[in-house]
Specification:
The chain is α/β, with parallel strands linked by helices. The chain has 2 domains: 143 residues, Nucleotidyltransferase, domain 5; 174 residues, Nucleotidyltransferase, domain 5 (2-Layer Sandwich), CATH 3.30.420.40. Helices cover 42% and strands 17% of the residues. The strands form 2 sheets. The chain has a 5-stranded mixed β-sheet, with helices on both faces. Strands 8-7-6-9-10 form a 5-stranded mixed β-sheet, sandwiched between helices. The longest helix is centred in the last third of the chain and has 30 residues. The relative contact order is 0.18.
């Protein structure tokens, strides 16, 4: 049976649409919004307006590239949350209206759950390696940092999360302090590749369990730069590569220490497990340093690691489409009354969304 799902992603500042045939991706189109660079961050009102302009062209392009007719669609999946309310409203409203016109069901998708399930997207009919249940996924972005234990496509438990700031925010705020342009995280990664990660050190939090904290690290970086600039006004410019490398190492060290502890917890819960499956997802999973750290952990500890292709690391509709496909198989459809939610579900929730 051929099941075609249109996925729509509009949680922040990227308008994206994808078509999937069962679990094989046929197209994945994204329109980014350059206007926010002028403001050093995403402006919600401008984001929602840009979504309105981009939505139809992006969806038309996705359908054309998939080489199907819109009447072949089986369902439309859309991001219900979390995200910016105005942006989510544009995507969800279009999905509802389009589905009514085609007389097909709609499927609501949780953005964070979709990031995890991107690992099950296939690009061809041939089978590619996917995580085996149960597995761990470190989801890291500008708004979220979580360790999730996944025992089924729709059975996910958050076993660790940030108690304050996200890892992506730590990257972006550090970049802003150093005067780097928005978005700062990718720029830190780029400059870090030419620097010495051992040149500078910063204080790291001592948070018990599997939870994270990045606010103290940001403060440590801020005070360090403030003191050094008093002694040398050109300190940042003269040491930029080493600073980026050292900051990146500090953030990644925090992430890897917690995921290593989470692997111990995974083995405790599942005593027969020998080689745990560990995945990363979210925007920060595109960071080259984090990818390298995970590969090193694989070589040192024997983990089976899963790193998403770069197009599936940042916000994209392919992950919405694959999640929609799995929900379609369950007959898990949404009603026209489903309203967007801006914040992530409670840590004990199963990523099912909020009514």
């Amino acid at each position: 049976m051929q099941t075609y799902i249109l996925g729509i992603e509009s949680s922040c500042d990227d308008t994206s649409a994808a078509i999937i045939n069962n679990d094989v991706i046929l197209s994945n189109v994204t329109a980014s919004q350059e206007v926010h660079r002028n403001f050093g961050g995403v402006v919600p009102e401008l984001a929602s307006r840009a979504h309105q302009q981009n939505m139809i062209p992006v969806i038309e392009t996705a359908i054309q590239r998939a080489n199907i007719d819109k009447k072949q669609l089986s369902a439309i999946a859309f991001t219900r949350g979390p995200g910016l309310l105005g942006s989510l409203l544009v995507g969800s409203s279009f999905a509802k209206a389009f589905a009514l016109g085609l007389e097909i069901p709609i499927i609501e998708v949780d953005h964070l759950q979709a990031h995890i399930l991107c690992h099950f997207i296939r690009n061809t009919e041939h089978t590619n390696p996917v995580p085996s249940f149960p597995f761990l996924c470190l989801t890291v972005s500008g708004g979220h940092t979580q360790i999730v234990l996944i025992t089924d496509y729709f059975n996910m438990e958050i076993i660790g999360q940030t108690i304050d700031d996200a890892a992506g925010e730590a990257f972006d705020k550090s970049a802003k302090i150093m005067g780097l342009p928005y978005p700062g995280g990718p720029m830190v990664d780029k400059l870090a590749q030419g620097g010495n990660p051992l040149r500078f050190s910063f204080s790291k939090p001592n948070i018990p369990g599997l939870d994270f904290s990045f606010s103290g690290l940001k403060t440590s970086i801020l005070y360090f730069l403030r003191d050094e600039l008093k002694k040398d006004s050109g300190f940042i410019e003269n040491n930029l590569n080493d600073l980026c490398a050292s900051i990146q190492k500090a953030i990644i060290d925090i992430l890897m220490a917690k995921i290593s502890s989470a692997v111990i917890e995974l083995k405790r819960r599942f005593p027969g497990m020998k080689q745990p499956d560990v995945a990363i997802a979210g925007g920060v999973s595109a960071n080259s340093g984090l990818r390298k750290a995970l590969e090193d952990a694989r070589d040192k500890h024997g983990w089976n690691i899963f790193i998403p292709p770069l197009p599936y690391s940042t916000d994209n509709a392919a992950m919405i489409a694959i999640t929609g496909y799995f929900k379609y198989l369950k007959g898990d459809f949404a009603s026209q009354e489903a309203a967007p939610y801006t914040r992530a579900p409670h840590p004990t929730a199963d990523f099912g969304g909020k009514d």
